[in-house]
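TetR/AcrR family transcriptional regulator
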Amino acid sequence: MARNLRKDNRARLLHAAADLFASQGYHATGMKDLEQATGMGRSSLYHYFSNKEELLFEITTRYLRELVGIGHTLLDEDIEPAKRLRLFSRAVMRSVAEDLAELTVCFREMHSVTGDNQQALMDLHRSYESVWARVLQAGSAAGVFTQTDAITVKSVIGMHHYSYLWLRPEGKRSPESIADSFCDLILDGLTPR
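Structure:
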């Protein structure tokens, strides 16, 4: 029971911090703001994270770690390349919709992460980009997609992630439907002529 409460409090703190960092900015958000948003005392906040930057690091990396894991699982499975692309695209768009505040914080505040955490964050971004590259390269290797390059990979990632600027969870289209539209466009461009 106590373990579940700690997990719930940590999740509540991460969610509140992401919302505050996304709306006010990381530097403009103080520990007092986090106390008010969560109802936790300062010592409770420090129980979960030793400082505000550690909290920022967790916010900017959690969703990426999950997506890299999903991508590796899909790459390990024997799946037709276009289906793998669609499945990963759908997972990414679902994450964008569900983790909108975290994604906003990542884009706006990743430069605020310093030291070893900055290197770990950059490595994670490279791992995430590598998953997309491998998904596309697997399709090329199977002869289903045309050859792709770094610009193609960056374009596909940008298509998905910059949707955070206009995607709203309560919108008319589901994240999966938007992902399917992206994939239709991508697959049309990757299909050998």
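The chain has two domains: 1-50, 56-190.
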